[in-house]
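TA notes, week 10

Several of you asked for a full example with nothing omitted. So below is the full record: structure tokens for the whole chain, then the designed sequence directly under it. When grading your own attempts, check the secondary structure regions first.
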């Protein structure tokens, strides 16, 4: 079902990602004196889709699941955003993440609006067949609102290329012919893009190199990476191979520390073959086990939160010792923590730039699908670096223009908002 969402005013203080996202929007809007007309428009959501649907389990029983898909804004083009499978999915989180996707697409200047979706489920508790059943049924529920010119899902937490293959096949079967552009993040053999799997982590690496260019890049820096999934593992490996020392690593089960630096290439290879990070560390004596919170408060040059949202809060921001934070996850920093970092002079490269590599290469995949072409990985990476570097420089320039006290996040939000407003002004309003 499609519902209208009431306009949200300036939010009360809160630690949730929706409250933080809205607070950050209003801070940027205040700086540019955005009119109430556009505030009302941009703090509403085009479509909020909520469904409960049955899925047949391996034992023949039927289980009911709840899922969401939220489309934030379509002024700049069809909406784009991931589908996550997690027991912690909430509608408010999905709404916030959809809004962040709007700014993210605008910041890197690709012709999409923002969307996000999810199902309340622990995918590790389902068999492969049950996951396929759930994905195909959820895709059927979403069919009225998704499409290559309407809304284009992608992988997110708990989903992957196989999930996208099932979604693409289900949607295509309902149309009677293959439509590869309905999703991105597919296997390369089904029209996916070379370089897509590493795109978000590679983007973090490109941005760090650009930000630290005057210091010779990441070589010699000490780093802590929270999250060793698709984003954190790739970023950590590339940073390590560029000559940085990754002192801390963590995944959902364990946190590791080695004062001499962790061999991330070996850890990446082990986990990529189905191994466990903790068991690898214990068996090889490659690192010691530490508390999860140590990864966030580590005495390092660079912190990469690349796990989940709202991990840097008012409770721990004062203990963070890194002087540079680059947000691999969506919304890892609450508005309260953001203010603490600004007061302490800690630089934050915000999520809407830092992890935009994934949606950027998703855009390349969509373009390839529409033209039935296949780019080389070298071309993909070259174009990715070009767009992210351009976006970084735009943000740095805007922050300098606004003046002291303008963070990279505020500058990024300003650019994103202005580009969407420009599209709205040019299109006008359908009566």
């Amino acid at each position: 079902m499609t519902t209208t969402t009431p306009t949200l005013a300036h939010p009360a203080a809160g630690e949730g990602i929706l409250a933080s996202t809205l607070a950050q929007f209003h801070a940027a809007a205040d700086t540019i004196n955005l009119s109430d007309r556009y505030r009302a428009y941009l703090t509403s959501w085009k479509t909020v889709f909520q469904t409960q649907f049955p899925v047949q389990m391996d034992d023949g029983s039927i289980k009911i699941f709840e899922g969401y898909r939220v489309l934030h804004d379509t002024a700049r083009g069809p909406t784009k955003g991931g589908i996550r499978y997690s027991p912690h999915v909430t509608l408010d989180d999905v709404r916030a993440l959809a809004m962040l996707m709007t700014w993210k697409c605008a910041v890197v200047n690709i012709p999409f609006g923002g969307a996000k979706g999810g199902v309340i489920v622990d995918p590790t508790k389902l068999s492969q067949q049950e996951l396929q059943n759930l994905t195909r049924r959820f895709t059927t529920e979403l069919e009225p609102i998704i499409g290559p010119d309407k809304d284009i899902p992608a992988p997110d937490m708990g989903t992957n290329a196989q999930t996208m293959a099932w979604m693409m096949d289900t949607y295509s079967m309902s149309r009677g012919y293959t439509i590869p552009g309905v999703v991105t993040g597919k296997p390369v053999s089904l029209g996916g893009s070379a370089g897509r799997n590493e795109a978000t982590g590679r983007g973090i690496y490109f941005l760090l190199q650009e930000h630290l260019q005057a210091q010779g890049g990441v070589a010699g820096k000490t780093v802590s990476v929270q999250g060793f999934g698709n984003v954190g593992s790739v970023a950590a490996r590339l940073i390590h191979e560029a000559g940085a020392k990754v002192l801390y690593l963590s995944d959902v089960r364990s946190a590791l520390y080695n004062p001499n630096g962790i061999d991330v290439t070996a850890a990446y290879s082990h986990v990529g073959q189905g191994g466990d990070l903790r068991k690898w560390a214990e068996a090889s004596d490659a690192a010691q086990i530490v508390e999860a919170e140590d990864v966030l408060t580590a005495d390092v040059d660079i912190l990469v939160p690349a796990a989940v949202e709202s991990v840097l809060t008012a409770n721990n921001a004062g203990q963070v010792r890194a002087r540079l934070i680059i947000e691999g996850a969506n919304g890892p920093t609450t508005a309260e923590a953001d203010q603490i970092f600004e007061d302490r002079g800690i630089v934050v490269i915000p999520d809407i730039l830092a992890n935009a590599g994934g949606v950027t290469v998703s855009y390349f995949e969509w373009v390839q699908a529409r033209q039935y072409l296949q780019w080389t990985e070298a071309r993909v990476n070259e174009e990715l670096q070009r767009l992210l570097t351009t976006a970084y420089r735009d943000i740095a320039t805007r922050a300098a223009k606004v003046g002291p006290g303008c963070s990279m996040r505020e500058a990024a939000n300003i650019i994103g908002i202005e580009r969407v407003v420009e599209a709205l002004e040019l299109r006008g309003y359908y009566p």
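DSSP finds 15 helices and 13 strands in the chain. Use that as a sanity check on your answer.
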